[in-house]
Protein backbone atom coordinates (compact mmCIF):
# COMPACT_ATOMS: atom_id res chain seq x y z
CA UNK A 1 0.00 0.00 0.00
CA UNK A 2 1.33 3.50 -0.79
CA UNK A 3 1.99 5.93 2.05
CA UNK A 4 -1.01 8.00 0.96
CA UNK A 5 -3.28 4.94 0.90
CA UNK A 6 -2.08 3.99 4.38
CA UNK A 7 -2.71 7.56 5.54
CA UNK A 8 -6.29 7.52 4.19
CA UNK A 9 -7.02 4.13 5.73
CA UNK A 10 -5.84 5.25 9.17
CA UNK A 11 -7.48 8.68 9.17
CA UNK A 12 -10.41 9.02 11.60
CA UNK A 13 -12.18 11.92 13.30
CA UNK A 14 -11.34 13.04 16.82
CA UNK A 15 -14.78 11.84 17.95
CA UNK A 16 -14.16 8.38 16.48
CA UNK A 17 -10.83 8.26 18.31
CA UNK A 18 -12.39 9.32 21.61
CA UNK A 19 -15.08 6.65 21.20
CA UNK A 20 -12.34 3.99 21.47
CA UNK A 21 -11.59 4.98 25.08
CA UNK A 22 -13.05 2.64 27.72
CA UNK A 23 -13.67 3.16 31.42
CA UNK A 24 -10.55 2.31 33.40
CA UNK A 25 -8.17 3.12 30.52
CA UNK A 26 -4.81 4.83 30.99
CA UNK A 27 -4.26 7.46 28.32
CA UNK A 28 -0.95 9.25 27.87
CA UNK A 29 -0.88 12.64 26.18
CA UNK A 30 2.18 13.79 24.25
CA UNK A 31 4.63 15.64 26.51
CA UNK A 32 4.25 19.41 26.99
CA UNK A 33 3.56 21.10 23.59
CA UNK A 34 2.58 17.75 22.04
CA UNK A 35 -0.53 17.19 24.18
CA UNK A 36 -3.53 16.62 21.87
CA UNK A 37 -6.19 19.30 21.41
CA UNK A 38 -8.94 17.86 19.18
CA UNK A 39 -8.80 14.44 20.86
CA UNK A 40 -9.00 16.04 24.30
CA UNK A 41 -12.04 18.10 23.27
CA UNK A 42 -13.75 14.99 21.89
CA UNK A 43 -12.94 13.06 25.07
CA UNK A 44 -14.63 15.82 27.10
CA UNK A 45 -17.85 15.10 25.20
CA UNK A 46 -17.69 11.52 26.52
CA UNK A 47 -17.48 12.57 30.16
CA UNK A 48 -20.89 11.18 31.11
CA UNK A 49 -20.22 7.71 29.55
CA UNK A 50 -16.86 7.03 31.24
CA UNK A 51 -15.54 6.39 34.74
CA UNK A 52 -12.06 6.06 36.15
CA UNK A 53 -10.14 7.14 33.06
CA UNK A 54 -6.56 8.14 33.90
CA UNK A 55 -4.80 10.78 31.86
CA UNK A 56 -1.02 11.12 32.12
CA UNK A 57 0.72 14.28 30.90
CA UNK A 58 3.72 16.44 31.73
CA UNK A 59 4.47 20.20 31.79
CA UNK A 60 0.87 20.83 30.71
CA UNK A 61 0.44 23.93 28.59
CA UNK A 62 -3.07 23.50 27.17
CA UNK A 63 -6.09 23.42 29.49
CA UNK A 64 -7.60 19.92 29.27
CA UNK A 65 -11.26 20.14 28.32
CA UNK A 66 -11.66 16.47 29.27
CA UNK A 67 -10.31 16.92 32.80
CA UNK A 68 -12.22 20.16 33.26
CA UNK A 69 -15.46 18.49 32.13
CA UNK A 70 -15.46 16.39 35.30
CA UNK A 71 -15.63 18.36 38.53
CA UNK A 72 -16.05 15.12 40.56
CA UNK A 73 -12.70 13.53 39.68
CA UNK A 74 -14.52 10.20 39.32
CA UNK A 75 -14.45 10.17 35.54
CA UNK A 76 -11.02 11.62 34.78
CA UNK A 77 -7.93 11.64 36.99
CA UNK A 78 -4.98 13.83 35.98
CA UNK A 79 -1.45 12.51 36.57
CA UNK A 80 1.53 14.70 35.74
CA UNK A 81 5.22 13.89 35.39
CA UNK A 82 6.06 17.55 36.01
CA UNK A 83 3.80 20.32 37.25
CA UNK A 84 3.32 23.52 35.31
CA UNK A 85 1.13 26.36 36.63
CA UNK A 86 -1.83 24.58 35.03
CA UNK A 87 -1.02 21.25 36.72
CA UNK A 88 -0.71 23.13 40.05
CA UNK A 89 -4.18 24.56 39.53
CA UNK A 90 -5.60 21.11 38.72
CA UNK A 91 -3.89 19.61 41.80
CA UNK A 92 -5.45 22.25 44.02
CA UNK A 93 -8.87 20.97 42.87
CA UNK A 94 -8.11 17.54 44.35
CA UNK A 95 -8.09 15.09 41.43
CA UNK A 96 -4.70 15.81 39.84
CA UNK A 97 -1.51 14.22 41.14
CA UNK A 98 2.23 14.36 40.64
CA UNK A 99 4.14 11.24 39.56
CA UNK A 100 7.62 11.27 41.15
CA UNK A 101 10.10 11.05 38.34
CA UNK A 102 13.77 11.39 37.60
CA UNK A 103 13.48 12.53 34.00
CA UNK A 104 16.26 10.37 32.54
CA UNK A 105 14.40 7.29 33.85
CA UNK A 106 11.03 8.15 32.33
CA UNK A 107 11.29 5.98 29.17
CA UNK A 108 11.88 2.95 31.38
CA UNK A 109 8.88 3.76 33.60
CA UNK A 110 6.56 3.58 30.61
CA UNK A 111 8.33 0.56 29.17
CA UNK A 112 8.19 -1.46 32.39
CA UNK A 113 5.90 -0.01 35.05
CA UNK A 114 3.01 1.90 33.61
CA UNK A 115 0.17 0.51 31.52
CA UNK A 116 -0.75 2.63 28.50
CA UNK A 117 -3.95 1.84 26.64
CA UNK A 118 -3.82 4.87 24.37
CA UNK A 119 -0.90 7.15 23.49
CA UNK A 120 -2.09 10.25 21.66
CA UNK A 121 0.24 13.01 20.62
CA UNK A 122 0.36 15.97 18.26
CA UNK A 123 2.94 15.87 15.49
CA UNK A 124 3.82 17.59 12.22
CA UNK A 125 2.06 16.36 9.06
CA UNK A 126 3.48 13.19 7.49
CA UNK A 127 6.58 13.86 5.36
CA UNK A 128 7.34 12.22 2.04
CA UNK A 129 9.03 9.29 3.75
CA UNK A 130 6.01 8.52 5.95
CA UNK A 131 7.30 10.11 9.18
CA UNK A 132 5.39 12.33 11.61
CA UNK A 133 7.85 14.60 13.42
CA UNK A 134 7.40 15.39 17.12
CA UNK A 135 10.88 16.70 17.78
CA UNK A 136 9.68 19.57 20.01
CA UNK A 137 8.62 16.83 22.46
CA UNK A 138 10.85 13.81 22.05
CA UNK A 139 11.14 12.96 25.75
CA UNK A 140 9.98 9.36 26.43
CA UNK A 141 7.74 8.96 23.39
CA UNK A 142 9.73 6.02 22.02
CA UNK A 143 8.85 4.05 25.16
CA UNK A 144 5.15 4.79 24.70
CA UNK A 145 5.34 3.79 21.04
CA UNK A 146 6.83 0.45 22.08
CA UNK A 147 4.23 -0.29 24.77
CA UNK A 148 0.94 1.53 24.12
CA UNK A 149 -1.90 -0.66 22.91
CA UNK A 150 -3.11 2.08 20.56
CA UNK A 151 -1.13 4.96 19.02
CA UNK A 152 -2.99 7.99 17.71
CA UNK A 153 -1.29 10.91 15.96
CA UNK A 154 -3.04 14.28 15.87
CA UNK A 155 -1.56 16.22 12.97
CA UNK A 156 -0.87 19.95 13.42
CA UNK A 157 0.52 22.02 10.55
CA UNK A 158 2.13 24.45 13.02
CA UNK A 159 4.53 21.82 14.36
CA UNK A 160 8.11 22.47 13.24
CA UNK A 161 10.02 19.57 11.69
CA UNK A 162 13.00 19.16 13.96
CA UNK A 163 16.17 17.30 13.06
CA UNK A 164 17.09 14.64 15.52
CA UNK A 165 19.51 12.09 16.72
CA UNK A 166 16.68 9.62 17.23
CA UNK A 167 13.22 9.30 18.78
CA UNK A 168 11.95 12.50 17.16
CA UNK A 169 9.24 10.95 15.03
CA UNK A 170 7.14 7.95 14.21
CA UNK A 171 6.63 6.14 10.91
CA UNK A 172 3.10 5.60 9.66
CA UNK A 173 3.63 1.82 9.87
CA UNK A 174 3.65 2.16 13.67
CA UNK A 175 0.60 4.44 13.87
CA UNK A 176 -2.88 3.01 14.45
CA UNK A 177 -4.94 6.12 13.73
CA UNK A 178 -4.45 9.66 12.45
CA UNK A 179 -6.60 12.64 13.41
CA UNK A 180 -6.35 15.83 11.39
CA UNK A 181 -6.49 18.35 14.22
CA UNK A 182 -7.64 21.96 14.30
CA UNK A 183 -4.12 23.30 13.58
CA UNK A 184 -4.08 25.49 16.68
CA UNK A 185 -0.84 27.41 17.24
CA UNK A 186 1.64 25.97 19.71
CA UNK A 187 1.49 27.37 23.25
CA UNK A 188 4.01 30.11 23.92
CA UNK A 189 5.92 30.83 27.13
CA UNK A 190 7.43 34.30 26.79
CA UNK A 191 10.81 34.72 28.50
CA UNK A 192 10.67 36.45 31.90
CA UNK A 193 12.25 39.90 32.07
CA UNK A 194 15.76 40.11 33.50
CA UNK A 195 15.66 41.51 37.07
CA UNK A 196 18.46 43.14 39.08
CA UNK A 197 18.73 39.93 41.11
CA UNK A 198 19.15 37.92 37.89
CA UNK A 199 21.85 40.36 36.79
CA UNK A 200 23.73 40.07 40.11
CA UNK A 201 23.62 36.28 39.89
CA UNK A 202 24.57 36.22 36.22
CA UNK A 203 27.62 38.41 36.87
CA UNK A 204 28.96 35.80 39.30
CA UNK A 205 28.16 32.81 37.10
CA UNK A 206 29.69 34.52 34.05
CA UNK A 207 32.89 35.08 36.03
CA UNK A 208 33.16 31.29 36.37
CA UNK A 209 32.50 30.55 32.71
CA UNK A 210 35.04 30.12 29.93
CA UNK A 211 35.09 30.05 26.16
CA UNK A 212 34.08 26.60 24.93
CA UNK A 213 31.83 25.73 27.90
CA UNK A 214 28.79 23.60 27.10
CA UNK A 215 25.60 25.03 28.57
CA UNK A 216 22.46 23.45 30.07
CA UNK A 217 19.69 25.75 31.27
CA UNK A 218 16.88 24.53 33.49
CA UNK A 219 13.21 25.37 33.41
CA UNK A 220 11.94 28.61 34.95
CA UNK A 221 12.53 32.33 34.73
CA UNK A 222 16.01 32.65 36.21
CA UNK A 223 18.03 30.13 34.15
CA UNK A 224 16.67 31.65 30.96
CA UNK A 225 17.39 35.19 32.11
CA UNK A 226 20.96 34.01 32.66
CA UNK A 227 21.01 32.56 29.14
CA UNK A 228 20.11 35.95 27.78
CA UNK A 229 22.93 37.53 29.74
CA UNK A 230 25.35 34.92 28.39
CA UNK A 231 24.22 36.03 24.92
CA UNK A 232 25.27 39.57 25.84
CA UNK A 233 28.69 38.49 27.20
CA UNK A 234 31.89 38.13 25.18
CA UNK A 235 32.11 34.34 25.64
CA UNK A 236 32.67 32.36 22.46
CA UNK A 237 32.52 28.83 21.05
CA UNK A 238 29.90 27.78 23.61
CA UNK A 239 28.05 24.52 23.14
CA UNK A 240 24.53 23.49 24.12
CA UNK A 241 23.46 20.18 25.64
CA UNK A 242 20.22 20.53 27.54
CA UNK A 243 16.93 18.95 28.34
CA UNK A 244 14.64 21.88 27.60
CA UNK A 245 15.50 24.28 24.82
CA UNK A 246 14.16 27.80 25.37
CA UNK A 247 14.43 31.14 23.57
CA UNK A 248 17.69 32.00 25.32
CA UNK A 249 19.45 29.33 23.21
CA UNK A 250 18.31 31.24 20.11
CA UNK A 251 19.76 34.39 21.71
CA UNK A 252 23.11 32.69 22.36
CA UNK A 253 23.24 31.29 18.82
CA UNK A 254 22.18 34.49 17.07
CA UNK A 255 24.61 36.58 19.12
CA UNK A 256 27.41 34.37 17.82
CA UNK A 257 28.23 32.96 21.28
CA UNK A 258 27.20 29.35 20.61
CA UNK A 259 28.48 27.15 17.81
CA UNK A 260 29.04 23.79 19.53
CA UNK A 261 32.35 23.31 17.77
CA UNK A 262 34.25 22.30 20.90
CA UNK A 263 31.82 19.53 21.89
CA UNK A 264 33.14 15.99 21.71
CA UNK A 265 29.66 14.62 20.93
CA UNK A 266 26.93 16.16 18.77
CA UNK A 267 29.62 18.54 17.57
CA UNK A 268 28.16 21.70 16.09
CA UNK A 269 24.67 20.93 17.37
CA UNK A 270 22.52 21.68 20.44
CA UNK A 271 21.16 18.39 21.82
CA UNK A 272 17.82 18.67 23.64
CA UNK A 273 14.72 16.63 24.42
CA UNK A 274 11.84 19.12 24.54
CA UNK A 275 11.16 22.72 23.62
CA UNK A 276 9.09 25.41 25.27
CA UNK A 277 9.27 29.08 24.41
CA UNK A 278 7.86 31.41 21.81
CA UNK A 279 7.12 31.14 18.08
CA UNK A 280 10.60 32.56 17.50
CA UNK A 281 12.05 29.39 19.06
CA UNK A 282 9.71 27.08 17.12
CA UNK A 283 10.66 28.81 13.85
CA UNK A 284 14.34 28.46 14.77
CA UNK A 285 13.91 24.72 15.35
CA UNK A 286 12.20 24.09 12.01
CA UNK A 287 14.53 22.15 9.67
CA UNK A 288 17.57 23.57 11.49
CA UNK A 289 20.58 21.24 11.34
CA UNK A 290 22.14 23.10 14.30
CA UNK A 291 19.74 21.34 16.70
CA UNK A 292 19.30 17.64 17.46
CA UNK A 293 16.29 16.26 19.29
CA UNK A 294 16.91 13.10 21.36
CA UNK A 295 15.03 10.97 23.89
CA UNK A 296 15.53 12.11 27.48
CA UNK A 297 17.48 9.00 28.44
CA UNK A 298 20.17 10.28 26.04
CA UNK A 299 20.20 14.03 26.86
CA UNK A 300 19.94 13.50 30.61
CA UNK A 301 22.11 10.40 30.99
CA UNK A 302 24.98 11.33 33.28
CA UNK A 303 27.31 9.18 31.19
CA UNK A 304 26.34 11.14 28.04
CA UNK A 305 26.05 14.71 29.38
CA UNK A 306 28.94 14.06 31.78
CA UNK A 307 31.17 12.96 28.91
CA UNK A 308 31.13 16.52 27.56
CA UNK A 309 34.03 18.54 28.96
CA UNK A 310 33.25 21.82 30.73
CA UNK A 311 29.53 21.20 31.08
CA UNK A 312 27.94 24.18 32.86
CA UNK A 313 24.47 23.56 34.28
CA UNK A 314 22.29 26.41 35.54
CA UNK A 315 19.12 25.58 37.45
CA UNK A 316 16.74 27.29 39.84
CA UNK A 317 15.50 26.24 43.30
CA UNK A 318 12.74 27.00 45.75
CA UNK A 319 14.78 26.55 48.96
CA UNK A 320 18.29 25.51 50.02
CA UNK A 321 19.06 24.45 53.59
CA UNK A 322 22.22 24.91 55.63
CA UNK A 323 23.35 21.38 54.81
CA UNK A 324 23.26 22.22 51.09
CA UNK A 325 20.14 20.18 50.35
CA UNK A 326 18.20 21.67 47.43
CA UNK A 327 14.43 21.71 47.17
CA UNK A 328 13.55 22.75 43.62
CA UNK A 329 10.05 21.35 43.39
CA UNK A 330 7.79 21.91 46.38
CA UNK A 331 6.83 24.24 49.15
CA UNK A 332 6.37 21.88 52.07
CA UNK A 333 4.05 19.19 50.77
CA UNK A 334 2.64 21.43 48.03
CA UNK A 335 4.08 20.23 44.72
CA UNK A 336 5.23 23.21 42.64
CA UNK A 337 7.02 21.56 39.72
CA UNK A 338 9.07 18.35 39.77
CA UNK A 339 12.48 16.79 40.02
CA UNK A 340 12.62 16.93 36.23
CA UNK A 341 16.18 16.76 35.01
CA UNK A 342 17.76 18.87 37.72
CA UNK A 343 19.44 16.05 39.61
CA UNK A 344 20.51 14.43 36.31
CA UNK A 345 22.37 17.59 35.29
CA UNK A 346 23.81 18.38 38.73
CA UNK A 347 25.39 14.92 38.75
CA UNK A 348 26.44 15.13 35.08
CA UNK A 349 28.17 18.49 35.60
CA UNK A 350 30.35 17.06 38.35
CA UNK A 351 31.17 14.04 36.23
CA UNK A 352 32.17 16.31 33.33
CA UNK A 353 35.89 17.17 33.16
CA UNK A 354 35.96 20.84 34.20
CA UNK A 355 32.17 20.80 34.69
CA UNK A 356 30.32 23.11 37.06
CA UNK A 357 26.73 23.07 38.32
CA UNK A 358 25.09 26.26 39.57
CA UNK A 359 21.90 26.31 41.62
CA UNK A 360 20.82 29.92 41.25
CA UNK A 361 18.12 31.45 43.41
CA UNK A 362 17.08 34.81 44.77
CA UNK A 363 17.91 35.04 48.47
CA UNK A 364 14.32 35.88 49.35
CA UNK A 365 10.80 35.16 48.22
CA UNK A 366 7.61 37.17 48.81
CA UNK A 367 4.75 34.91 49.91
CA UNK A 368 1.11 35.35 48.91
CA UNK A 369 0.50 37.59 51.96
CA UNK A 370 3.36 39.87 50.89
CA UNK A 371 5.84 38.73 53.60
CA UNK A 372 9.50 38.42 52.66
CA UNK A 373 10.88 34.95 53.41
CA UNK A 374 14.43 33.65 53.16
CA UNK A 375 15.01 30.90 50.61
CA UNK A 376 18.12 29.84 52.54
CA UNK A 377 16.66 28.01 55.52
CA UNK A 378 18.04 26.03 58.49
CA UNK A 379 16.20 22.97 57.17
CA UNK A 380 13.94 22.56 54.15
CA UNK A 381 10.32 23.42 55.06
CA UNK A 382 8.79 20.30 56.68
CA UNK A 383 7.30 18.05 54.03
CA UNK A 384 9.48 19.64 51.35
CA UNK A 385 11.07 17.40 48.74
CA UNK A 386 14.85 17.12 48.40
CA UNK A 387 15.62 17.40 44.69
CA UNK A 388 19.43 17.38 45.05
CA UNK A 389 21.00 15.68 48.05
CA UNK A 390 23.64 17.63 49.93
CA UNK A 391 26.51 15.56 48.56
CA UNK A 392 25.46 16.30 44.97
CA UNK A 393 25.15 20.08 45.32
CA UNK A 394 28.05 22.13 43.92
CA UNK A 395 27.70 25.92 43.58
CA UNK A 396 24.76 27.71 45.21
CA UNK A 397 24.42 31.30 43.98
CA UNK A 398 22.29 34.19 45.25
CA UNK A 399 22.57 37.91 44.57
CA UNK A 400 24.83 38.06 47.69
CA UNK A 401 27.45 35.59 46.53
CA UNK A 402 28.35 32.08 45.56
CA UNK A 403 29.32 29.05 47.65
CA UNK A 404 30.79 25.77 46.44
CA UNK A 405 29.49 23.01 48.75
CA UNK A 406 31.75 20.24 47.42
CA UNK A 407 34.06 18.87 50.08
CA UNK A 408 32.84 21.29 52.74
CA UNK A 409 31.93 20.07 56.23
CA UNK A 410 28.64 20.95 57.91
CA UNK A 411 30.08 23.98 59.75
CA UNK A 412 31.69 25.26 56.55
CA UNK A 413 28.40 24.86 54.69
CA UNK A 414 26.50 26.70 57.42
CA UNK A 415 29.01 29.55 57.28
CA UNK A 416 29.15 29.66 53.49
CA UNK A 417 25.42 29.44 52.89
CA UNK A 418 24.54 31.95 55.61
CA UNK A 419 27.09 34.25 53.96
CA UNK A 420 25.00 34.31 50.78
CA UNK A 421 21.61 34.59 52.55
CA UNK A 422 19.84 37.96 52.70
CA UNK A 423 21.52 40.01 55.50
CA UNK A 424 18.17 40.47 57.25
CA UNK A 425 18.01 36.71 58.00
CA UNK A 426 21.64 35.95 58.82
CA UNK A 427 21.49 36.34 62.65
CA UNK A 428 18.45 34.10 62.88
CA UNK A 429 20.11 31.49 60.65
CA UNK A 430 23.23 31.55 62.86
CA UNK A 431 21.13 30.89 65.99
CA UNK A 432 19.42 27.98 64.26
CA UNK A 433 22.77 26.62 63.03
CA UNK A 434 24.10 26.82 66.62
CA UNK A 435 21.05 24.94 67.89
CA UNK A 436 21.54 22.29 65.20
CA UNK A 437 25.20 21.80 66.17
CA UNK A 438 26.63 22.97 62.85
CA UNK A 439 28.06 26.32 63.97
CA UNK A 440 31.71 26.41 65.13
CA UNK A 441 32.45 29.05 67.72
CA UNK A 442 35.09 30.59 65.44
CA UNK A 443 32.81 30.68 62.36
CA UNK A 444 32.67 34.06 60.61
CA UNK A 445 29.44 35.89 61.33
C1 LIG B 1 14.94 21.77 32.01
C2 LIG B 1 16.36 21.13 32.03
O1 LIG B 1 17.15 21.22 31.13
S1 LIG B 1 16.70 20.15 33.37
C3 LIG B 1 16.56 20.78 34.88
C4 LIG B 1 15.53 21.75 35.17
N1 LIG B 1 14.54 21.27 36.07
C5 LIG B 1 14.46 21.72 37.31
O2 LIG B 1 15.29 22.48 37.76
C6 LIG B 1 13.27 21.21 38.07
C7 LIG B 1 12.93 22.03 39.25
N2 LIG B 1 12.87 23.48 39.04
C8 LIG B 1 11.75 24.12 38.62
O3 LIG B 1 10.75 23.51 38.31
C9 LIG B 1 11.78 25.64 38.50
O4 LIG B 1 13.07 26.03 38.20
C10 LIG B 1 11.27 26.38 39.79
C11 LIG B 1 9.92 25.88 40.22
C12 LIG B 1 12.28 26.19 40.91
C13 LIG B 1 11.17 27.87 39.42
O5 LIG B 1 10.39 28.00 38.28
P1 LIG B 1 9.68 29.41 37.90
O6 LIG B 1 8.72 29.12 36.82
O7 LIG B 1 10.70 30.43 37.61
O8 LIG B 1 8.98 29.70 39.26
P2 LIG B 1 8.07 30.87 39.79
O9 LIG B 1 8.91 31.87 40.48
O10 LIG B 1 7.17 31.32 38.69
O11 LIG B 1 7.24 30.11 40.90
C14 LIG B 1 6.44 28.98 40.60
C15 LIG B 1 5.48 28.75 41.76
O12 LIG B 1 6.22 28.42 42.93
C16 LIG B 1 5.88 29.27 44.00
N3 LIG B 1 7.11 29.49 44.79
C17 LIG B 1 8.31 29.87 44.31
N4 LIG B 1 9.18 29.95 45.34
C18 LIG B 1 8.53 29.61 46.46
C19 LIG B 1 8.91 29.49 47.84
N5 LIG B 1 10.16 29.74 48.26
N6 LIG B 1 7.97 29.10 48.72
C20 LIG B 1 6.71 28.84 48.32
N7 LIG B 1 6.30 28.91 47.03
C21 LIG B 1 7.20 29.30 46.11
C22 LIG B 1 5.36 30.54 43.33
O13 LIG B 1 4.48 31.25 44.15
C23 LIG B 1 4.62 29.95 42.11
O14 LIG B 1 3.37 29.40 42.50
P3 LIG B 1 1.96 29.80 41.78
O15 LIG B 1 2.26 30.10 40.34
O16 LIG B 1 1.11 28.59 41.94
O17 LIG B 1 1.47 30.97 42.52
C1 LIG C 1 10.41 17.49 33.20
C2 LIG C 1 10.63 18.73 32.52
C3 LIG C 1 11.20 19.92 33.13
C4 LIG C 1 12.35 19.80 34.06
O1 LIG C 1 13.27 19.03 33.95
O2 LIG C 1 12.37 20.56 34.99
UniProtKB/TrEMBL annotation:
The active site is at residue 243. The keyword Lipid metabolism applies. It is found in: Cytoplasm. GO terms for molecular function: acetate CoA-transferase activity. It catalyses: butanoate + acetyl-CoA = butanoyl-CoA + acetate. Residues 277-433 form the Acetyl-CoA hydrolase/transferase C-terminal domain. The keyword Transferase applies. Keywords: Cytoplasm, Fatty acid metabolism, Lipid metabolism, Transferase. Residues 4-187 form the Acetyl-CoA hydrolase/transferase N-terminal domain. InterPro entries: AcetylCoA_hyd_C (IPR026888), AcetylCoA_hyd_C_sf (IPR038460), ActCoA_hydro (IPR046433), ActCoA_hydro_N (IPR003702), Butryl-CoA_acetate_CoA_Tfrase (IPR023990), NagB/RpiA_transferase-like (IPR037171). GO terms for biological process: acetate metabolic process; acetyl-CoA metabolic process; butyrate metabolic process. Transmembrane segments: none annotated. Its EC number is 2.8.3.-. Belongs to the acetyl-CoA hydrolase/transferase family. Coenzyme A-transferase that converts butyrate to butyryl-CoA. PANTHER family: ACETYL-COA HYDROLASE, ACETYL-COA HYDROLASE-RELATED. This is Probable butyrate:acetyl-CoA coenzyme A-transferase. The lineage of its organism: Bacteria, Bacillati, Bacillota, Clostridia, Eubacteriales.
Amino acid sequence: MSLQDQYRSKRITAREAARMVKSGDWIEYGFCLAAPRAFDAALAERCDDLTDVHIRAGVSVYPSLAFESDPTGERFTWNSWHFSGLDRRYASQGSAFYIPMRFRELPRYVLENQPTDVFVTQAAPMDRYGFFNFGVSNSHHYGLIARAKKIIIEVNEHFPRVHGGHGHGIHIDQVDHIIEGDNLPLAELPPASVSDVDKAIATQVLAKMHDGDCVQLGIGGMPNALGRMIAESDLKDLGGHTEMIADSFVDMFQAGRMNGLRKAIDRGRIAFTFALGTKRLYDFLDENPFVASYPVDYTNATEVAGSIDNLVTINNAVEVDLFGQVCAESSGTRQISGTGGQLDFVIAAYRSKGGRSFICLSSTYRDKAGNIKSRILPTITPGGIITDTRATTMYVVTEYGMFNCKGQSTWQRAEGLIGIAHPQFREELISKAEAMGIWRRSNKR
